[in-house]
């Protein structure tokens, strides 16, 4: 089965990476909308029109199911895309539910884009999960820019995290929800900083595992038995051999060495983050 996975940029690779681990049977077409990232700074109308165009493109490429590997586009466009297209469409939402359900959980800090945080979809979710009183919302827009330029643990990234977290009493927080797929790249640096601040107990939860289970469910695909081991690549050739996939940057297929090596580095950075789950 051919599955089209898209995001505003390279964040959606975190969903593809998780799919490699658990749904190795499918064929993937990955689309990063590099011409329009960040979606988190766009209007709802713009985001819908990008998502619609990408869905059409992926259907033309033979996708039999679509995954919106972007919390922002999911909040804005999923409902209308489902009305327009007849194929199954899997959308994402910040993993608030598992974070609130954790045993002994205290406050939950939801990090996402500005658009995701202001959309009705998140408000409905918090209401449904009785989470309004126990959640704090934090826009981390600069993470998207940092991730897009492969800047994952520079001084600037660390200063940004420190200043964003400063207003919160982290002693009251049990988990941080990474409610934007770009944020997964920062698991290692977030872990390092939370530990240094004296909070090794704060967990980080993202939506990729739930999304992959949902893909399996909706598209009737078997989930692999756990234990495929680490997904680190030493070359892009190895990446393409082990997990054949087509990659597009806004409609242009990634075939050159530079683009493929970039994708390989990104997969490796995500795999680094696996150690902090
Ligand atoms: N990766 C996207 C998300 O999950 C959006 C990032 C952006 O383009 O602002 O929300």
- The best one-word shape is globular
- Could you tell me the number of beta strands? 10
Distance between the termini: 29 Å
Strand order of the largest sheet: 4-3-1-2-9-10
Structural class: alpha/beta
Task: Specify the number of helices.
Answer: 12
What name does CATH use for the topology of the largest domain? Rossmann fold
Number of domains: 2
CATH architecture identity of the largest domain: 3-Layer(aba) Sandwich
Q: Strand content of the residues, in percent? A: 15-25%
The radius of gyration is 18 Å
SSE order, one letter for each helix or strand: EHEHEHEHEHHEHHEHEHHEEH
Quick check: average pLDDT? 96
Roughly what percent helix?
A: 40-55%
Explain what you see.
- The chain is α/β, with parallel strands linked by helices and 277 residues long.
- It folds into two domains: 2-93 and 209-276, Rossmann fold (3-Layer(aba) Sandwich), CATH 3.40.50.1860; 96-207, Rossmann fold (3-Layer(aba) Sandwich).
- The protein contains twelve helices and ten strands.
- It has helices at residues 13-22, 44-60, 71-84, 96-101, 114-118, 120-128, 141-148, 155-165, 187-196, 208-218, 236-242, 257-274; strands at 2-7, 27-32, 65-68, 89-90, 107-112, 135-139, 173-178, 203-206, 245-249, 252-253.
- The strands form two sheets. The protein has a six-stranded mixed beta sheet, with helices on both faces.
- Helix 1 (13-22) crosses helix 10 and helix 2 (44-60) crosses helix 3 (71-84).
- The longest helix is centred in the C-terminal third of the chain and has 18 residues, at 257-274.
- The radius of gyration is 18 Å and the shape is globular.
- The chain starts with a strand and ends with a helix.
- The relative contact order is 0.18.
